[in-house]
Each structure stands twice: as structure tokens, then as C-alpha cells.
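Quick one:
INPUT:
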């Protein structure tokens, strides 16, 4: 048996590593924001062949023997990580939940020292990517067939937000798979393993050529349903958000830093713009208890985005974003708590 450690960007940034994994009948043992671990069981010439093909892609570490482990850092002794790797292998076989570790970096927190909702949203989306990639439904794999995942709805409910320099983790799993949509849930835990929040999301797979939804139950022979998990997510599903006619609160022109690899405004950028609709004093007095966003259409570089904010009560607000004065592209709900 052999283990290979490669940079996460090598796996998520292109489909070359995924192709090699399938070619050699290997499996992805672990994926996080920094690296990926690939496992291959076979004869020495087979493990050497995969080694030779991974080397040009930035292979960080390679070990091969009867009982082996791969480290979390280039300088850590291999033997120190053996028990952890083996326990994670067992867990992956026993359940369908992905678990990923993070640190609240100081450049990811706000004035209060807590992680921002935008950064947390990015981490949730990354975890969804890691989890789907490890199960053969990652973006790089789908792009070969000209498909991609798009986020339709997201609801996050928190008891507290991770504090700077503190470790935290996110678990994710697929709750349901329908013909055109899939429900994916998340659990956010602090460094002691205590649950501090949950999130629910709805995703669609669309054709990059027609921009129309794909039939999830026919893709890959419908094998995506094999990953459905009945783990509990005790928060309400994303709600229907309605904003009455009103004057725009502000406008914003989509710029270079807003545009993602698909050529449209990144989904997290809408979250950040909605957060900016509220004054700093409000964040000093209250915190966000629940945040929802529903994505309806795409916007592009140079589009003028108008933000309409409606106050429902003292702690609840609905927001609607329109592009170029007409089409609705996004709606959001924010519920604060003192």
C-alpha cells in the first residue's frame, strides 16, 4: 500500500489528479484546504507508476510499506500520524459525513475578532467541494462532461462564530437527492467538538453549455444517491424571502474582484455586500443569529446592482438585489439577536 500527499490546489484546480486516481484505481483518503491524501493498494510497480505521474503535479510526500502513514506537515515524523490516518480510514468506510478542520485566521475576522459570515460561507462551499470531489462528483470531474454545481439556497444558523486563532471544524453530508436538486447540510463545531451552528443548502447541477439543470438521478447511473445520509440538521430549511416595493438602499457596480472563474459575480460577494448594508454600531450591539440567501440569476462585470432592504421587525430584515434596475439576482434574510 502507498500514500501520496499532493497540494489541494492540484486536486481542486484541475481534473488531472482526478483522472490519475481513476486510472490507477486509487482512492482519495482525505481532502482539506491545504492538501489531499491519495491511497493506492497494489504491487510496487503499480504504486511507482502513480508516483511517477504525480511528481510533475507537485507531489509533497510519498511513503510505501506494510503499515504506513503520511504527515500533516512536511517536517512531522511519519509514525506520529499513523493512528489518526487509520482511524479516519475506518470512519470514511462507516459513514458518509465529511469532516474538515480550519483555523479562524486574523485576516478572516471582523472588528470583534470573530469570523465573518462571508468567510464562513466560503469555508462551507469549500467543504462541499472537498466532500463531492472525494466521491467522484467534484467540479473538475464534472467539467469534463461540461457540467458544474451551482448554489441555489443557503441558510446558516449560529450560536456563536469562531474567534480569531481558534480552531474549528465543519462536517458536511448529503441529506436528499432529487431529480434537479440536492440538499446538503453542515455542522459547525468549535475546537472542543461542541456544536456552535448548522447550515442547510440547496444545489443544482447545470450544463455549462445550455445553463439548464441536469438530471441528477441519471448522471453516473444515479450513484449520487449512495451518499445520502440521515444525520440530523435541526434548523429550518431556507425560507421564501419576499421584499415589498421600496426605494433602493444603495447601488454597486460589479468590479474585477467580484468576478469568479465562471465569469459572473461570486456567490459570496453577494453575502458581503448584504452585510455592508448595516452600520457598524448594529454589529456592536447585536450578532447575526440566522442568515439566508437565495440565488436567482447571475450578474456580470459592469452590472449595476441595486440593494433593496426591508425591515420586518427590530431584528429581522429582508434584502433583494436587482441588476441594472430590473432582474432580481438574489434575495437574503438576516435575523439578529442581542
Amino acid at each position: 500500500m502507498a500514500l501520496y500527499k499532493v497540494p489541494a490546489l492540484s486536486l481542486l484546480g484541475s481534473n488531472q489528479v482526478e483522472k490519475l486516481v481513476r486510472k490507477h484505481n486509487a482512492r482519495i483518503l482525505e481532502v482539506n484546504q491545504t492538501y489531499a491524501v491519495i491511497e493506492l493498494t497494489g504491487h510496487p510497480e503499480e504504486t511507482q507508476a502513480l508516483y511517477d505521474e504525480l511528481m510533475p503535479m507537485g507531489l509533497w510526500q510519498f511513503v510505501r510499506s506494510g503499515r504506513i502513514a503520511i504527515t500533516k506537515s512536511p517536517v512531522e515524523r511519519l509514525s506520529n500520524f499513523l493512528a489518526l490516518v487509520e482511524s479516519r480510514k475506518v470512519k470514511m468506510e462507516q459513514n458518509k459525513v465529511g469532516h474538515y478542520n480550519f483555523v479562524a485566521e486574523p485576516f478572516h475576522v471582523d472588528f470583534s475578532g470573530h469570523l465573518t459570515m462571508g468567510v464562513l460561507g466560503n469555508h462551507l462551499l469549500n467543504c462541499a467541494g472537498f466532500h463531492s470531489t472525494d466521491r467522484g462528483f467534484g467540479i473538475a470531474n464534472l467539467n469534463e462532461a461540461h457540467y458544474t454545481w451551482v448554489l441555489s439556497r443557503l441558510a446558516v444558523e449560529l450560536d456563536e462564530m469562531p474567534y480569531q486563532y481558534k480552531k474549528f471544524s465543519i462536517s458536511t453530508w448529503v441529506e436528499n437527492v432529487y431529480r434537479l436538486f440536492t440538499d446538503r447540510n453542515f455542522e459547525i463545531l468549535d475546537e472542543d467538538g461542541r456544536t456552535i451552528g448548522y447550515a442547510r443548502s440547496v444545489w443544482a447541477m447545470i450544463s455549462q453549455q445550455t445553463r439548464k439543470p441536469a438530471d441528477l438521478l441519471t448522471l453516473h447511473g444515479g450513484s449520487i444517491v449512495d451518499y445520502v445520509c440521515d444525520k440530523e440538521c435541526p434548523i429550518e430549511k431556507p425560507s421564501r424571502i419576499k421584499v415589498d416595493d421600496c426605494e433602493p438602499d444603495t447601488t454597486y457596480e460589479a468590479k474585477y474582484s467580484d468576478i469568479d472563474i465562471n465569469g459572473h459575480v461570486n456567490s459570496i460577494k453577494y453575502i458581503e455586500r448584504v452585510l455592508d448594508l448595516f452600520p457598524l454600531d448594529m454589529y456592536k450591539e447585536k450578532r447575526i443569529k440566522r442568515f439566508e440567501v437565495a440565488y436567482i440569476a447571475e450578474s456580470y462585470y459592469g452590472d449595476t446592482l441595486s440593494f433593496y432592504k426591508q425591515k420586518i421587525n427590530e431584528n429581522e430584515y429582508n434584502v433583494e438585489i436587482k441588476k441594472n434596475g430590473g432582474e432580481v439576482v438574489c434575495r437574503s434574510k438576516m435575523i439578529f439577536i442581542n
